[in-house]
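Question: Now follow the chain.
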Amino acid sequence: MNFLSFRGGVHPPHYKEATENLKVEKAKDPSIVAISLQQHIGAPCEALVKVGDKVKVGQKIGEAKAFVSAPIHSSVSGVVKQIKTMKVPIPAGEAQCIVIESDGLNEIHESVIPKGDLESLSGKEILTIIKEAGMVGMGGATFPTHVKLSPPPDAKIDTIILNGAECEPYLTADHRLMLEDPESIIYGLKAMMKVVNVSKAYIGIENNKPDAIESMLKAAQKESTIEVVGLQTKYPQGAEKQLIYACTKREVPSGGLPSAAGVIVNNVATASAISNAIKTGMPLIERICTVTGKGIKEPKNLLIKVGTPTKEIIEQCGGYNGNIGKIIMGGPMMGLAQYTDELQAIKGTSGILVFTPEEAKLPETKACIRCGKCVEICPAFLQPLYISAYSLNDMHDTAEKYHALDCIECGSCSFICPSKRPLLQSIRVSKREIVAKKRKTK
């Protein structure tokens, strides 16, 4: 097998050894969940329940009123105790949450029934199932899946790619899924292929997971339209544009979406969740999460319910190992650092990393030495040092001329910078300012 790749990128240490060989464990059911109405890219949901209502597992409790949004469902059965604004691990930092006290019965809602099989279901019916199940990208981006599978009429989609790269250090949730339930990934992929009527699909997996490649090859051996592709281990191999180039040698134009290259990209965990929604009717209410780092006593891969308090998840891994230096939701490269553990798991909680004070200590920032390393490794072909400099000087219009909006926020530039400049952070500021200005203009 040839291992494919893209131009640029970096090679951070993997740090996956603590959990890559640990089977997924089902987490203990939480006694109380706080389910955010904003846990996806797009508009937040509107609550369908009120305080005092009884709810069941899989019951829709948040309705998506906008196209770019996804419904929210209860992960437990019990009573709604509160609906209030709480801290949530999303960029906004907080959102309206429905607090449910579990009755411990896990009573399944009447709507949770098998939806049929791929042969009998039409593509339109599958798309409705995906939408109503609240599917989002589970690699961390949480973009509503039904939106991805509804490309513009003029887009000629002929390929779907599943991201099994899991290129972020520490995380092993997708790795374990590919080893333990590869059939569900193939089933979900075939469902997506039927929705957009394509006859070619790739599953891209980095070559530091040879067992996952072998597992997926075996699961797909009878599928002539699905190809398992080995990828060189390099970050950010799992980014959409880089994955598309590695698998197809097609390039997404500046400012364009993957559909401009005739491709739709999704995560292997999303495919598995789609399979579950079709076969059982259960919406997206749980996911695999890697809990690791030197600040965790017993690193694990846990199957957690959406809305479970972070503290409870960490306690199920033996608790903290000494003092806490930093908590990150997601991976260390693109995840969000949190200032508290008073948070709840959402659909995109692929990892909970706890670092010791020594690991979390930030290096001293120095002046840029114009070495050009950030330009050399940028997978988006940008010049991060200039975009960052313009951002730091509030020259966001100039930063836009340097294609700041094409930044995929992978953090490779910050990682490689010998002066430890805040490249990614400052570029993010410019991107927000540019987008905000465009909205005001409209």
Remarks:
- The first strand starts at residue 25 and ends at 26.
- The chain has a mean pLDDT of 95.
